[in-house]
Amino acid sequence: MSRGLSFATLLDGLEKHHGRPPALPVTTALGLVLWENVAYLTSDKKRAQAFAMLKERVGTSPESILAASREDLFAVAELGGMHPERRVSTLVTIAETVMEEFDGNLEACLELPLSSAKRALKKFPGIGDPGAEKILLFTETRPILALESNGLRVLLRFGFGEEQKDYAASYRSVRAAIEGQLPDDCRKLIRAHQLLRLHGKELCKNTRPACEACPVRARCRFASH
């Protein structure tokens, strides 16, 4: 159990320390799929630069990606970090999938029932259940607290849920632990996602976390050990 710390109090403490996280520069389903795949193991700044180059030099429609030269796609992928050739192929695969399986319009899948929408989004590289839920949240389609690994780690360390051997089981444990405390509002949940992710990346790191700098360390189960 968390040490008497509510989800809302945790977020307020994190925002007081980190400030309001910047919004992502994309809010469409296809844009978010491309955002996740345009860079690999790089900084948020580099990812944003690679996405901006894709948008300006190639375009983000499936038609523009398929019509782009290999050189232009490689320039985008190279800016996004390691294995650029692999990411060029990934971008082309994404565009082909949108054209062949969604008639060129991925946004239509957002209108499907939740399970069907998630199944459709998981057809794309790098998009599992958390990634599909993130797309549904950031398009303001479904008020779901989508967690990536940093945010999940933060909540587990604060005692929301219990860490399991299986990542998916840990994810379910955290979601079950905080379900009654979540707002039914996409923008508030986007704020939560961004704050938890930022805290996990900057302070509550997987190895050598900076507990001494954490603004709510006194309420953290992990820091007290």
Could you give the topology of this structure?
Elements: H1 7-18, H2 29-37, H3 44-58, H4 62-67, H5 70-79, H6 84-101, H7 114-121, H8 129-138, H9 149-157, H10 167-178, H11 186-202
Any key phrases for this structure?
single chain; 225 residues; mainly alpha; Endonuclease Iii, domain 2; Endonuclease III, domain 1; globular
How would you sum up this structure, described in words?
This protein has 225 residues and is mainly α. It contains 11 helices and no strands. It has helices spanning 7-18, 29-37, 44-58, 62-67, 70-79, 84-101, 114-121, 129-138, 149-157, 167-178, 186-202. Helix 9 (149-157) crosses helix 11. The two termini are 14 Å apart.
Relevant CATH superfamily of the largest domain:
Hypothetical protein, domain 2
Helix content: 55-70%
Q: What sequence of helices (H) and strands (E) makes up the elements?
A: HHHHHHHHHHH
Text of the CATH class of the largest domain: Mainly Alpha
Regions with little confidence, pLDDT below 50 for 5+ residues: none
Largest sheet, described in full?
Answer: none
The separation of the N and C termini measures: 14 Å
**CATH architecture call of the largest domain:** Orthogonal Bundle
Gross morphology is: globular
Strand tally is 0
Please work out how many helical segments DSSP would assign: 11
Instruction: Specify the structural class.
Output: mainly alpha
Total domain units:
2
Strand content: under 5%
CATH topology of the largest domain: Endonuclease III, domain 1
